[in-house]
Amino acid sequence: MPDPAQPDPISPERQEEEAGARMSFFEHLVDLRKRLINSLLGIGLGMVLGLLVSQYFIDYIVRPMQMALRVNHLDDKLYYTSPAGFISLVITLGLYLGMVLAMPWVLYQIWMFVAPGLYKHERRAVAGFLIPSTLLFLAGIAFGYFIVLPTMLNFLVGMTVSGPVKPLISINEYFDLILIVLIGLGIIFELPVLIFILSLFNIVTPKLLLKNFRYAMLIITVLAAVAAPTPDATTMLIFMAAMVMLYFIGVIVSYFVVRRKRARALASGEAS
Fold this sequence. Notes:
Number of strands: 0
Structural class: mainly alpha
Number of domains: 2
Largest sheet: none
Order of helices and strands: HHHHHHHHH
Mean pLDDT: 84
Radius of gyration: 25 Å
Shape: flat
């Protein structure tokens, strides 16, 4: 039985965590300056590369709109309505592509700044959701491009086919629309990551999520009605199906988080 008068020995792992968690205020400022400069350089390089390749991505950007026009037997050309409209689109698209290209580097710089101030188990927890969150965001963009946009654009274009008004699609306004849709879906697809963080801090549990699913379904329905860019039922149902699927993925993630925390608590209790 350990002597209560003697302090508990500090394990080498704990010493490593304590050493990693200690940095002076000046060292934090120097490191922050370094990470900010590296991030800005990465974003700048990414934007240069984005500008070099952005013109080649325009074909992929306009493809869903062209398919919707062809399905409805309309001219599949898109137009710009100002002399600088096309150049403006190329530059804007290049800047967004540059930020996407630079994002892994920026996330790495954020990680390198934050990691020294975290304990070992905290570093594992943070690293555990950085990569999945990036993959989920890209999955949301892919879902929007391949599933939501064709359905939405076909509905919008099809409304005018039988009438006297024909669409003359501006490439700049079209780009603004799909940018909102794709980024919005990328953010929506972060729902499992949000549930992971809430479970990590004991705010939600799998049992709580399943018990209150009917309330979650009501919120999902409202969000789908608000987030869907068109009023048709098909697009809204696609949004709802995606969010319900993400909700249950979040329940599974929460289950594993809670189970792992309980296992660690039991192991810690047995060790003491």
